[in-house]
Design goal:
Layout: H1 2-20, H2 26-30, H3 35-63, H4 74-109, H5 117-136, H6 162-190, H7 203-234, H8 248-265, H9 268-282, H10 289-302, H11 318-346, H12 355-377, H13 380-386, H14 390-420, H15 426-452, H16 467-497, H17 533-538
Helix pairs in contact: 3-4, 3-5, 3-16, 4-6, 4-14, 5-6, 6-7, 7-8, 7-9, 7-10, 9-11, 9-12, 9-14, 10-11, 11-12, 12-14, 12-15, 14-15, 15-16
Length: 541
Amino acid sequence: MSTVSTTHEHDHAHDHAHDDHMPHGWRRWLFATNHKDIGTMYLIFSFVSLLAGGVMALGIRLELFQPGLQYLRPEFFNQLTTMHGLIMVFGAIMPAFVGFANWMVPLQIGASDMAFARMNNFSFWILPVAGCLLFGSFLAPGGAPAGGWTLYAPLTLQMGPGLDMAIFALHLLGASSIMGSINIIVTILNMRAPGLTLMKMPMFCWTWLITAYLLIAVMPVLAGAITMVLTDRHFGTSFFSAVGGGDPIMFQHIFWFFGHPEVYIMILPAFGIVSEIIPAFSRKRLFGYSSMVYATSSIAILSFIVWAHHMFATGMPVTGQLFFMYATMLIAVPTGVKIFNWVATMWKGSMTFETPMLWSVGFIFVFTMGGFTGLILALAPIDIGAQDTYYVVAHFHYVLVAGSLFAMFGGFYYWCPKWTGYMANEFRGKVHFWTSMIFFNITFFPMHFLGLAGMPRRYADYPTQFADFNMLASIGALGFGLSQVYFLVFVVLPAYRGEGVKAAMNPWDGAKGLEWTVPSPAPHHTFETPPNEKELHAAGI
């Protein structure tokens, strides 16, 4: 172990020598090629998007606080629902996970940086441009797109230029995702420390490797679908216009062939984060590591054959409904394997409940609920009744907010000491967790009942029978939003300003992995010489 520490002291000294001729100020960020700086920029961008998308969500809930039209025109209400979805999916969740990957993948595999450092810079700086295009669509004549985040034709063939701005923004975001994915794949496959075989790799790296392949496979499909919408709008084609012999349902097939794997793109890295945290705070190895790897791979493969479960109400032949129904139920099996493995890891472990562990256990609880409602929606006869109701809204928010977002919060609290050199405040972290957890459930749990009672989604008004649950959901949404502002002001900023307890090299008692063998905060340059077998062993690999 002493050799490890001396090597790293040497690295640290080496690092200070480098810092002297490193660009400072705005140049450091604009021309950043270091994976840590780029990871930080991704995380900042995604948090800004989260707050912007959250403000839109609060606008939606404000209007739905009471029946009748209070504050928003129905057209603007539809713009908010559409933009909220697009910004949260493409601006908040996906860039945040890429930020985690940039920060942690090189540290976890003992690489000095990402494989393509300049491309890494480029793939980030596309995002603010795309973000400006997307937000700018509100200023276009006719306003932002209002066809739902799924951009269904033929509705999208009738909108103003705001939709074209959104299409270009999505093209840019897709290009960024593809470049980021290529970078992650090459880094993981080519730059692992000697002796770190694929089946010894941390679960977070595995989930990202699989996610990156998914992204490369499906982002061009989305690009194709929205390009066809663009040509239908401006170049006289009729892909989706029935008048010219096209088929609007074809858009749904192409979109969901992208959209369903996309759902897993947004949850697999979350599985990876949780698979790092739970063994650390259970002080045990992850139960069934290889089955976790195979389950993740199975989810990725099966995600390509379930897309039309979003389309049971489109008049599909019964054989098609049966195929997609059974395929969807099948994908629940590897997901169930993962949940079993996490619970088995905790079983008889000497568990402690620091903030990262709270978020992870909370994640398992709410994600499982989201999984069960998904299984219910997989049944074609039930889905036809629940289609486009608030039951679906409740289901996917349980998976995406309570799934992706809660796991990211857990990841932040877990790796914050490595990022900032300071521990996130434990008490405030717990306040953030409990307020988020309680308000999240107050917001989205009543939506199951609203949906089962028949309240359609994306409507600005509703009958009085739905008033009580809507009022409850709106109050919960305000509380949930304020919890995230609390997180920013009282947890994130103090940690980055260096307030609180300085972090040790490995601040968590049970944490294993190469990232805990470098100083906290991680110096600008790490692993200039790859870790050897002995160092891997010392890191618990």
